[in-house]
Design goal:
With about 325 residues, the chain is an alpha+beta fold. It has 8 helices and 11 strands. Helix 4 packs across helix 6.
């Protein structure tokens, strides 16, 4: 009897504790799972779009964020502060993702018809940032393909309106600016959720062969022409200001001389008028004063002046330093 009780008691004890242990274990697992799935971290360069039961709920920024666990809330991380790059006409093999050296060519993207019915290969890049994460995720399917199609359409339209020489030389910057504006307008119309940062033409060349060699010669001639024009402008900018400065100096000197002569003549006229007025009032006195002033002017450089002492009505003409001869 005692042996049988020893066998039965461990079985009864195990069967009574097992459900409790299982329940506690399940609760712990659920709590850990809920805690683990209730938090998520968003990087500084990202934003997160939260869906609740598959429907858009909110967009949250960087930091530690919370959500309802067990798949009720799902999170999509979107890199909103990262500039993304797409290449057209080639695929780069370097670390930058945009280099032309060793790149693979995609003629289906780069070959275009210009406004003067010439064939040209245009390679370019488009850089963009995501500025509306929810629109980026849900408004357009096949996002990269759509960006490529729109970019190619805009670039073909711009190149197709211009002659080949303009595309290859002086209108490159204008094409880049207009392409960026036109692409942004289309993306905004579709509420695509992106901002075009830049459109950059990488390489524009005619088809390979004799045509390409001829266009390279033309391009070199245009560059030489622009260089000579710039050198001429530089020489012009050096000589013309110097000549203008010399001319201004001569004009100022002439104006100063004219003003001096006018002022002198005005002073002489005023002095003459004053003398005439004095002469009219006292002719004798004025004649004597003028005579004395004239003799003083004539004799001022003489070292010795002789005057006869026996002259009656002696009029001293010059200060003889106290000595009379």
């Amino acid at each position: 009897m005692e042996g049988e009780e020893k066998v039965v008691r461990p079985a009864r004890r195990g069967s009574s504790l097992s459900p409790k242990i299982i329940a506690v274990a399940v609760i712990i697992i659920l709590v850990v799972a809920a805690a683990a799935s209730s938090f998520f971290v968003v990087d500084q360069t990202e934003q997160a779009v939260v869906l609740r039961l598959g429907k858009y709920n909110r967009t949250v920024g960087p930091g530690l964020q919370t959500k309802i666990p067990f798949g009720i809330d799902t999170v999509h991380i979107v890199p909103t502060q990262v500039v993304q790059t797409l290449t057209f006409g080639y695929r780069a093999n370097d670390s930058t993702g945009t280099g032309l050296k060793g790149a693979s060519s995609y003629k289906s993207e780069s070959t275009m018809l210009t406004g003067d019915l010439n064939i040209v290969d245009v390679e370019w890049i488009v850089q963009y940032k995501i500025n509306d994460p929810s629109a980026w995720l849900f408004n357009v399917e096949n996002r990269e393909t759509t960006i490529r199609d729109i970019s190619q359409s805009v670039m073909n339209a711009l190149v197709g309106d211009l002659p080949i020489l303009s595309v290859m030389t002086n209108l490159r910057t204008q094409i880049e600016i207009e392409a960026q504006e036109n692409m942004q307008e289309i993306f905004d119309r579709y509420n695509f959720g992106i901002q075009i940062v830049t459109v950059k033409l990488q390489n524009i060349v005619p088809p390979e062969g004799d045509v390409q060699d001829a266009f390279e010669d033309v391009n070199k001639a245009i560059q030489d022409m622009n260089r000579l024009i710039n050198e001429g402008k530089e020489h012009y900018n050096q000589e013309i200001p110097a000549a203008q400065g010399e001319a201004s100096k001569l004009i100022l000197q002439a104006q100063g001389y004219a003003a001096e002569r006018v002022n002198t003549a005005t002073g002489d006229a005023a002095r003459f008028n004053a003398m005439l007025e004095a002469y009219t009032e006292s002719p004798a006195i004025t004649e004597t004063r003028l005579y004395i002033e004239t003799m003083d002017e004539v004799l001022k450089n003489e070292d010795i002046t002789l005057v006869d002492r026996n002259l009656e009505q002696f009029l001293p003409i010059k200060n003889l330093g106290g000595t009379a001869l």
